[in-house]
Amino acid sequence: MKKVLIIDDEADLVELLKARLEQHQYEISTAFNGEEGFQVLEKVRPDLIILDVAMPKVDGYMFVQQFKQRENLQGIPILILTAKNTLHELFEAEGFYDYLVKPFEAEILLARIEELIGR
Amino acid sequence: MIPHFSGALNSDEYRVLIELSRNAMAIFVQGELKYANPVALQVFAQFPNLLEKISSLAVPTEEVVRLSLPENGQNQEHVLECQTTELNWQGAPAALANFHDVSEYYQVQSIKSEIREQKRVDRIKDEFVSTVSHEIRTPLSIIRETTSQILDGLHGEITSAQKNFLSKTLRNIDRLTKIINDLLDISKIESGKIEIRREKVDLVSLVRDSLVQFTPQIQKKGLQVLNSFSHPHIEISIDKDKITQVFINLLSNSLKFTEQGHIGVGLKEWDNFVECSVMDTGVGVASEDLSKLFNKFIQIGRTDGPGQKGTGLGLAICKGLIELHGGKIWVQSERGQGTQMIFTLPKT
Ligand SMILES: Nc1ncnc2c1ncn2[C@@H]1O[C@H](COP(=O)(O)OP(=O)(O)O)[C@@H](O)[C@H]1O
Ligand SMILES: [Mg+2]
């Protein structure tokens, strides 16, 4: 089973994403901010990270910056899933191009995940 | 360095100085005008109420007094600053009034404060836009995904009646999302906050890709698609997402207002620009409405029936995006005769 780590501070949305992805045979780990995300990454190596941007403590932007410094995490694709549609350039400048704006359509989200994981 | 002059001026020289001075000077003894230099006389003629006002001020105060006065024969108010100084005039205590018109200075000041105010409003608007974009889209995404999961049967089977009503919910969530997106777009366009990121694009493929999402609707209505491209590929440097948005807006209008016949896209490559058009054989637009079409919140025939509700922002957004590319958009249409939206995109 392919593993997906969801990092988002909206508990309701995390629960929904988990239900949707589990139905499509993904194994899900969750974290409610970037800091917790790194804690999960100590134990699990996911095939994909779904990352929110506006979060307390370590937000999505800080997360990708720290992520880049970690040798062992390289190669894990990140799909940025955010309500802000004005941040493409910011993330592109950091080398992250996969961006989906909330509200999203489940079919599109699933297609993007498959594409990124190469399943 | 303070310059130093030798020799005192004689009275003729003083007279010349006073008479050529650009500063208006008038001397009052007990409120009665005793002398006014030429500029002061001019100013008194320009503002009929001034003499009276100044003579009542002419008790020396040393304070700067501001007077607002209408100009003779004009309805514009001017601002004059006046300062009175004590002196002795022909043996009697008197007041020397110095005054000048400072309206221009005030105009500049008020323009400056308008600009400051405009910047403040822009900042509030930006904050508002980003708040709306985040704070509304997040709960909206939760509502949408919840509805969509129930509809997809993820949490148990549902009846066809439940499905029917949940589909309505979903459609209206998407409608709300569209409204929010349109409002944010128009607000960004208006505040000049939108940036064009040009890249080399084949316009023919862009049009084909834009049409794909309309295939189900086109088939459902039984419409034909008639495209005409002057070349199999048309390379141009544009912001791909923004021009796609333009075609999608125009195509969705054509579909919305066309029940039979055809819709189509035309691309014609000229030396320096590409002429693009989106045409249909739909209801058309009455000539008296043509000029209003590109304004915000304009919806004509809103009462025509169900299924035609929009925001009236689509064309205003198209116009903004095309103008950002240095192009122009216009419309040719007649009531009942179909519509053709035409726009140009400069090649560089
Ligand atoms: N292809 C078309 N045929 C007929 N009327 C049109 C067409 N395109 C636009 N209009 C008219 O222009 C109005 C404004 O269009 P638009 O700005 O896209 O807003 P909306 O689609 O949200 O109503 C429409 O409500 C309609 O009256
Ligand atoms: Mg429209």
Structure, explained:
- The complex is a heterodimer of chains A (119) and B (348).
- Chain A has 5 helices and 5 strands; from the N terminus they run βαβαβαβαβα.
- Chain A is of the alpha/beta class.
- Chain A has a single domain, classed as Response regulator (Rossmann fold, 3-Layer(aba) Sandwich).
- Chain A has a 5-stranded parallel sheet.
- In chain A, strand 4, helix 4 and strand 5 form a beta-alpha-beta unit.
- In chain A, helix 2 packs parallel to helix 3.
- The longest helix of chain A has 13 residues.
- Chain B is α+β, with helices and mostly antiparallel strands.
- Chain B has 9 helices and 13 strands.
- In chain B, strand 3 and strand 4 form a beta hairpin.
- In chain B, helix 6 crosses helix 8 and helix 8 runs antiparallel to helix 9.
- The longest helix of chain B has 49 residues.
- The model of chain B has no long low-confidence stretch (mean pLDDT 90).
- Chains A and B meet through helix 1 of A and helix 4 and helix 5 of B.
- Bound molecules: adenosine-5'-diphosphate (ADP) and magnesium ion.
- The site of adenosine-5'-diphosphate (ADP) has 22 residues of chain B, from helix 8 and helix 9.
